[in-house]
Amino acid sequence: MSAPHPRRAAVTGIGVVAPNGNSTEAFWKATSEGVVVLDRITREGCEHLPLRVAGQIRDFDPPAAIEERYLVQTDRFTHFAMAAADLALEDAGLSRSDTDADPFSVGVVTAAGSGGGEFGQRELQQLWGKGSRFVGPYQSIAWFYAASTGQISIRRGLKGPCGVVASDEAGGLDALAHAARAVRRGTDVMVAGATEAPLAPYSMVCQLGYEELSTVAEPDRAYRPFTTAACGFVPAEGGAMVVVEAETSARERGVPVRATLAGHAATFTGASRWEQSREGLAQAIRVALDEAGCAPEEIDVVFADALGVPEADRAEALAIADALGPHGTRVPVTAPKTAVGRACGAAPLLDVAAAVLAMEHGVIPPTPNVFDICHDLDLVTARARATEMRTALVLSRGLMGSNAALVLRRGAADAS
Amino acid sequence: MRRRVAVTGIGIVAPGGIGVPAFWDLLTSGRTATRGITFFDPSGLRSQIAAECDFDPAAHGLDAEEIARSDRYLQFALVAGDEAIRDSGLDLAGENPWRVGVSLGTAVGGTTRLEHDYVLVSDRGQHWDVDHRKAEPHLHRAFTPSTLASAVAERFEARGPVQTVSTGCTSGLDAVGYAFHTIEEGRADVCIAGASDSPISPITMACFDAIKATSPSNDDPAHASRPFDARRNGFVMGEGGAVLVLEELEHARARDAHVYCEIGGYATFGNAYHMTGLTREGLEMARAIEDALGQARLDATAIDYVNAHGSGTQQNDRHETAAVKRALGAHAYDTPMSSIKSMVGHSLGAIGAIEVVACALALARQVVPPTANYETPDPECDLDYVPRVARERRLRSVLSVGSGFGGFQSAVIMTLPRERTE
């Protein structure tokens, strides 16, 4: 075991806005019960597209969560981000007056994969349909990928290090790692995570070029990773923000350390080169374990990337075996995202939220719609599994070639 | 022992200067590359001027397939990347690929292609319901900014930490800063760093029109970008890409690489004030400068040159002058501070990396680039802005600062290699 880091990064708050729940509690209830919310896309303008199924957020009421002046200048992905950040900060017991005491000690980092697509499409229509004078004043700040970090910083008065990383899906884990490094460098608190809203009509058209996308029309058959029926992935919207805090800061404030971000690594093996992702993912796992000072046998649960493309699923199963050795076929593996779909860079954030909650509850959430596993994995399928967990491994890969692994330890590190 | 980070290779595609020799020639001549927009008919726009690159991707070694699948900003990055790797003398085949990373910034990514295909699928903005059958191949590569780092990593077979950074107008500085930290923290030995943007398209011009951020001096484009001048009236849109090879210093020395400079410190803070507005005090940018100085273990008085954000908007130049005075104290008045945006425009996410390249060259050649078009002093901007003419000067440590939408304030410090006892 390596020497304890002087400033360990802890998770002290979680905020989720997901297709299966617009609060952390609702998300965990649905996730642990395996409630599937994938459905036919009902968004206006999407009816005739060859992409039929997605994980949509249906009962999110932006005006109930966000002030009007922020709503008008932001896209749906930033609405989710502001709402999730509020939930996470509240969960961490950090009020506005707490963060105002030293605004430079609280920063924000998000991962961005899709930007403000719905807002952007509306303004493109104004420009091309009516003329340049009809483009509104907020297009320049709503469409770009940095909108959520900027708005969270402004709305909550947070002046610490602000960042935006984009490493497609795996970027969600990179954002958390970025936050952990900022904490190690001296920032007390980072509000970190990702939310996405890639289901506007033109955003969907842009994604049709991904050959990994599922075009199956039946919601219960559209996203079935690790099976012979795997036919691609289903897109989704939403995401999660978490409060990443120096363990010392959490202790001083007297709030519980929910988990520590113990190790992370990212590698790259080329866009859609899924066979090569085996080596890249295995390498990421090894380096993340090393940083965490964690033996393979200590991993109690793996939250898989589970892309749902046969070649990619095989590469992931083999990568887990390569990196964890014999333990790789014994450790429980789960992919609760089959219930909600994959929201670009936010997909692994929902897994991180689920992993922390799973360790706290002693319950591994299931992988709905998946049975008849065709890989040598102990996949938790139909029902949740009760088990004691201290360490979780979260995996993510991106369509543009990134691989990332994150090791989470339950509770305060000095208890181990 | 602390790992130090060297710049060992540089590549650039900038308006008026593709490749390092042409770029440096432009910067030291005081000429400007701003002109009336030629890429599309800008009539109807408030600002009809930009700093465009006369760029032929085929002439710079990209094949037909690469050109077809790569949006313009990707082409800039590939060409600048080729030059940087060549310049570094690095034999990538001999490197451990897991120890080679990529960190590239872009503010608007594939917007140009997104807009192009939008026009096709919407029948020129006639329908909310878009016709996917009219989209062109490769559109999905424009959808996510990740494509930038991915395309460059594939070209150079980097397998380490690969990420795109998209913090708006500080993207370029932040991408270099992240790469610096990546090597310093031991997560890679080599990092291909930089930024690229090609935002000269109707939607991007129109959205800055809407907030009057860009210059309306359409009748005199060559003199439209006037940072720190009392008659400044907004920034002039630009485009371009810059790539640097960052390398752990001992790694560079072991292969006898030419070292342009070291990256000594990087920091960024949010102003938590306004998405597009800036305070008069510049507290947050000052804090970023102070933090970066601390990492570099330098006193403020060690700074020999400040490469300004200097966008040429009224509020930016005032804000920045206040921030630099706050961070450097009286030394600010003895320190030349110039804005190359006066010559190459403001290429949003790319410009930060282009400015880092300008700083590396300034250090290597001991010359400060000027602020072109500077004529009329502004009482609120009372520093030495190096008017119009490049200046020879002994340079050991330089500072580059950036400021962007979202309220982000970033600072990077570069130094000539020196022996530090630690």
Automatic annotation (TrEMBL), chain A:
| Cited Gene3D superfamilies | 3.40.47.10
Entry's Gene Ontology BP terms:
fatty acid biosynthetic process
Recorded protein name is Polyketide beta-ketoacyl synthase
The Ketosynthase family 3 (KS3) domain, residue ranges: 6-410
Q: Cite the entry's keywords alphabetically.
A: Acyltransferase, Transferase
Please give one Gene Ontology molecular function term for this protein: 3-oxoacyl-[acyl-carrier-protein] synthase activity
Organism superkingdom: Bacteria
Protein's UniProt keywords contain Transferase: yes
**Any keyword Metal-binding?**
no
Q: Which family does it belong to?
A: Belongs to the thiolase-like superfamily. Beta-ketoacyl-ACP synthases family.
Automatic annotation (TrEMBL), chain B:
Which UniProt keywords are listed?
A: Acyltransferase, Transferase
Iron among keywords? no
Q: Which GO terms describe its molecular function?
A: 3-oxoacyl-[acyl-carrier-protein] synthase activity
- Gene3D superfamilies associated with the record: 3.40.47.10
Taxonomically, the superkingdom here is Bacteria
A GO BP term here is: fatty acid elongation
Q: Which InterPro entries match?
A: Beta-ketoacyl_synthase (IPR000794), Ketoacyl_synth_AS (IPR018201), Ketoacyl_synth_C (IPR014031), Ketoacyl_synth_N (IPR014030), PKS_Beta-ketoAc_synthase_dom (IPR020841), Thiolase-like (IPR016039)
User: What are the TM regions of this chain, as residue ranges?
Assistant: none
Q: Can you give the residue ranges of the Ketosynthase family 3 (KS3) domain? A: 2-416
Supply one GO CC term from the record: cytosol
One Pfam family per UniProt: Ketoacyl-synt_C
**SUPFAM superfamilies named in the record:** Thiolase-like
Q: Which family does it belong to?
A: Belongs to the thiolase-like superfamily. Beta-ketoacyl-ACP synthases family.
Q: What is this protein called?
A: Beta-ACP synthase
**Mind giving the lineage of the organism this protein is from?**
Bacteria, Bacillati, Actinomycetota, Actinomycetes, Kitasatosporales
